[in-house]
Design a protein that fits this description.
By secondary structure, the chain is of the alpha+beta class. It is built from three helices and three strands, in the order H-H-E-E-E-H.
């Protein structure tokens, strides 16, 4: 059974994304944050309704909130949703 969505789950997801999935974070910022000129992004937090990113655009750092298309149930749902969003972003780009 997947663990419920908690601060610890958010911290673990953010750590993983920032260390290993910078390309995905950039896709989220460019596609779902409508920041097509973004050059990098960092995940600050994630909760059942969305994620908060810090995005570099033209030498400026911008806070970006990206809402999910549904409320996440748990960490497994977060994983599946984040992967689906990368696929959607790649197909739109």
């Amino acid at each position: 059974m997947s663990e419920p969505f908690s601060t610890q789950v958010s911290d673990r997801i953010c750590s993983h994304m920032n260390e290993d999935r910078g390309d995905a974070l950039l896709i989220y910022a460019q596609t779902f944050g409508s920041l097509t000129h973004a050059t990098s992004a960092q995940m600050l937090s994630i909760d059942p309704e969305g994620m908060n990113l810090s995005v570099q655009v033209n030498n400026a750092t911008l806070p970006v909130r990206i809402q999910f298309d549904h409320v996440l149930k748990n960490s497994e749902d977060a994983h599946d949703t984040l992967i689906a969003m990368v696929g959607q972003g790649r197909s739109q780009g």
